[in-house]
Specification:
The protein has 223 residues and is of the alpha+beta class. It is built from eight helices and five strands, in the order H-H-E-H-H-E-E-E-H-E-H-H-H. The structure holds zinc ion.
């Protein structure tokens, strides 16, 4: 088995990669992937975000074909087999970095969401083996390998999983003012509640008025 980490991987290779060979020979690969090459990711980006970002001076339409950089590294780690013998098993580490334009669900303006993927996979041969694999390590995921493994699909899958459930700014620039006026309204409400409480204290209690109107006062009727 020859170590050949320097071999460049063409895009065609990446759609049909011998992932077992990649791991056992300790190969490395890196590249850039456009969001337009990942239909499922592209579907997550609102189509009108690029228009909106034009208006606010952010990247123009056409420049929003976000590029993600990725690195993959194959390796093996010795594992104790059922027969009590240690044998090297295939692993893959994958890192993906980039930013995608999403729409903030709080202020509805587009913003750039940074996505980071750093995953380690134990590569198994079959679905059955994946099901049986003991998941005692949170750091390691299990994937079913192939001699024609689609690495681009794995990168896309990980990017999809790294998307925020509710996209939003850490701090919304637009919402800032409305939050302030919102809190002002809140304090105004508090004041008016205090005022109405004060009003109630000043106004005579209608039941007290009725008491005064009763002839003879309490117990007077029993005479
Ligand atoms: Zn926002």
């Amino acid at each position: 088995m020859t170590r050949n980490p320097g071999k460049p991987a063409s895009p065609a290779d990446l759609r049909a990669l011998d992932i077992f060979e990649f791991a056992t020979s300790g190969r490395q690969a890196a590249g850039a992937l456009r969001i337009s090459q990942m239909p499922r990711m592209l579907a997550e980006v609102p189509s009108d975000v690029s228009d909106a970002s034009d208006a606010s001076g952010n990247p123009a339409a056409g420049e929003d074909d976000t590029v993600f950089t990725w690195q993959a590294e194959g390796s093996t780690q010795p594992e104790l087999q059922d027969d009590g013998v240690e044998a090297p098993q295939p692993y893959l580490r994958l890192a993906v970095h980039g930013s995608v334009w999403l729409r903030c669900q709080r202020c509805l303006s587009p913003y750039s969401q940074h996505l980071d993927v750093d995953a380690t996979y134990r590569i198994v041969a079959t679905e059955e083996e994946a099901d049986e694999y003991p998941l005692d390590d949170d750091e390691v995921e299990v994937i079913v390998g192939s001699r024609q493994f689609d690495l681009i699909d794995l990168i896309e899958e990980e990017l999809l999983l790294s998307l925020p459930l509710v996209p939003k700014h850490t701090v919304c620039p637009e919402v800032h003012e409305s939050l302030l006026s919102g809190s002002a309204e809140g304090s105004a409400d508090d004041e008016s509640e205090e005022n109405s409480a004060a009003d109630a204290a000043d106004k005579p209690n209608p039941f007290a008025v009725l008491e005064k109107l009763k002839p003879g006062g309490s117990g007077g009727g029993k005479h």
